[in-house]
């Protein structure tokens, strides 16, 4: 006897018509993903081929102290490079040679494209192939785009992980792969729960070090921990791996459903599953109930930003008692977020893409109790008297799985409590 789905059958929103808009967007730069990726991959270096603006963005986002030596940097494109007066490939070779001679601890080097390097059509794929021939086997050189011209900020991680999949060796072993960068403490919680159920071996992409490299093949099954990994999902399926579709592990319900889908794949008995998950499930329920008191009965409006919007809307409507007015996402990948759409309470407008002016009009007309949006919209909306939540904070903060469920609810309830306190002070 194996684990049954813990979720009730619902009509959900999978068949809900999606409002698709293409216009001016408000997005954050994909280079931001380097900030959490360089902490996960301990022997990797991320070299952005970009401008001084790129360098300032990374340093500001990471809060790097002047005496630190982080594992990311920017190869500055000067005026001569942009004007075609210098051979950018030769310049890049020189920068990489200096970097690797000074940092022999680097085992993986990512050449990261930016808006400037893409505008001048700098071929970083060719550069990575050339450098791999030069520096292999000591250093593996890969490339991906972190440009924000056509993408949202979480796609930097997706592009990075997708670039790693083709170079993974072939494996015939039956293994579980967890895909997506998580804080170490959260990742360890997930692995611990799965290990207690007898599931293994468990691999993680991205792995902490190049030496931890593992294979992929037709016997590999993978579970995504982040909903924005569409390119990585496709790359793994091209290698023969099979995706375990499930709601994402946000809140008690989502975490239980995610674990249950994996447990069912590996034939875990129901009593084993219940024994392993009973205590953390109870803690998560109580934590969410306490943290979401101020959310119940409130309305929420999601602008498209992180691609976490659909799973988070499912969490807020089903576990926190909120009503979603609109759930906007940069992209809606049915094969990835379909299980969350199945559970999302019917009623909200589902929108894909963005015409920011039109969406702002809908938000102002609805006057939601809470608006989840990017940094560029939060301050103007706050000035209009609306309560906002920064979408980017949901990516930088540990929010997955049981032990973080209460913290996740708290991230949404705090802006509402703050607004209530300010009103009390103003009244006094």
TrEMBL record:
Involved pathway(s): Porphyrin-containing compound metabolism; bacteriochlorophyll biosynthesis (light-independent)
Residues of the Nitrogenase/oxidoreductase component domain: 29-384
Domain of life per record: Bacteria
Gene Ontology molecular function: oxidoreductase activity
Enzyme Commission number, as recorded: 1.3.7.7
Coiled coil: none
Residues that hold [4Fe-4S] cluster according to the record: 29, 54, 115
Annotated InterPro entries: LIPOR_BchN/ChlN (IPR050293), Nase/OxRdtase_comp1 (IPR000510), Protochl_reductN (IPR005970)
This protein's UniProt keywords: 4Fe-4S, ATP-binding, Bacteriochlorophyll biosynthesis, Chlorophyll biosynthesis, Iron, Iron-sulfur, Metal-binding, Nucleotide-binding, Oxidoreductase, Photosynthesis
Iron recorded as keyword: yes
Annotated family: Belongs to the BchN/ChlN family.
Task of the protein: Component of the dark-operative protochlorophyllide reductase (DPOR) that uses Mg-ATP and reduced ferredoxin to reduce ring D of protochlorophyllide (Pchlide) to form chlorophyllide a (Chlide). This reaction is light-independent. The NB-protein (BchN-BchB) is the catalytic component of the complex.
Name of the protein in question: Light-independent protochlorophyllide reductase subunit N
Organism: Seohaeicola saemankumensis
Source taxonomy: Bacteria, Pseudomonadati, Pseudomonadota, Alphaproteobacteria, Rhodobacterales
């Amino acid at each position: 006897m194996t684990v049954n789905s813990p979720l009730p059958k619902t009509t959900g929103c999978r068949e809900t018509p999606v409002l698709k808009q293409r216009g001016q967007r408000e997005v954050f730069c994909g280079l931001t993903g380097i900030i959490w990726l360089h902490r996960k991959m301990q022997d990797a270096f991320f070299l952005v081929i970009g401008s001084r603006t790129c360098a300032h963005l990374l340093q500001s986002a990471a809060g790097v102290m002047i005496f630190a030596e982080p594992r990311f940097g920017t190869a500055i494109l000067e005026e001569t490079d942009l004007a075609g007066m210098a051979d950018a490939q030769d310049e890049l070779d020189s920068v990489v040679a200096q970097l690797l001679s000074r940092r022999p601890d680097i085992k993986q080097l990512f050449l990261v494209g930016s808006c400037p390097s893409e505008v001048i059509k700098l071929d970083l794929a060719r550069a990575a192939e050339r450098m791999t021939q030069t520096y292999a086997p000591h250093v593996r050189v890969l490339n991906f785009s972190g440009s924000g011209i056509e993408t949202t900020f979480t796609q930097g991680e997706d592009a990075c992980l997708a670039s790693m999949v083709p170079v993974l060796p072939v494996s015939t072993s039956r293994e579980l792969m967890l895909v997506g960068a998580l804080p170490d403490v959260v990742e360890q919680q997930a692995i611990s729960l799965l290990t207690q159920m007898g599931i293994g071996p468990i691999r993680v992409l991205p792995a902490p070090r190049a030496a931890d490299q593992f294979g992929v093949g037709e016997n590999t099954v993978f579970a995504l921990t982040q909903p924005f990994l569409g390119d990585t999902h496709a790359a793994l399926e091209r290698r023969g791996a099979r995706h375990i579709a499930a709601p994402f592990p946000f809140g008690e319900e989502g975490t239980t459903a995610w674990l249950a889908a994996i447990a069912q794949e590996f034939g875990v008995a129901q009593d084993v599953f219940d024994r392993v998950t009973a205590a953390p499930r109870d803690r998560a329920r109580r934590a969410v109930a306490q943290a979401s008191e101020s959310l119940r009965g409130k309305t929420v409006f999601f602008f498209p930003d992180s691609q976490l919007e659909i799973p988070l809307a499912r969490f807020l409507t089903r576990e926190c008692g909120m009503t979603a007015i609109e759930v906007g996402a940069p992209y809606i990948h049915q094969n990835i977020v379909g299980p969350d759409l199945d559970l999302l309470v019917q009623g909200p407008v589902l929108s894909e893409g963005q015409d920011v002016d039109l969406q702002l009009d809908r938000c102002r007309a609805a006057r939601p109790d809470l608006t989840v949006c990017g940094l560029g919209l939060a301050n103007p909306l706050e000035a209009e008297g609306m309560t906002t939540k920064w979408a980017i904070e949901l990516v930088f903060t540990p929010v997955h799985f049981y032990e973080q469920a209460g913290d996740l609810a708290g991230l949404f309830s705090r802006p509402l409590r703050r607004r209530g306190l300010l009103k009390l002070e103003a009244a006094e």
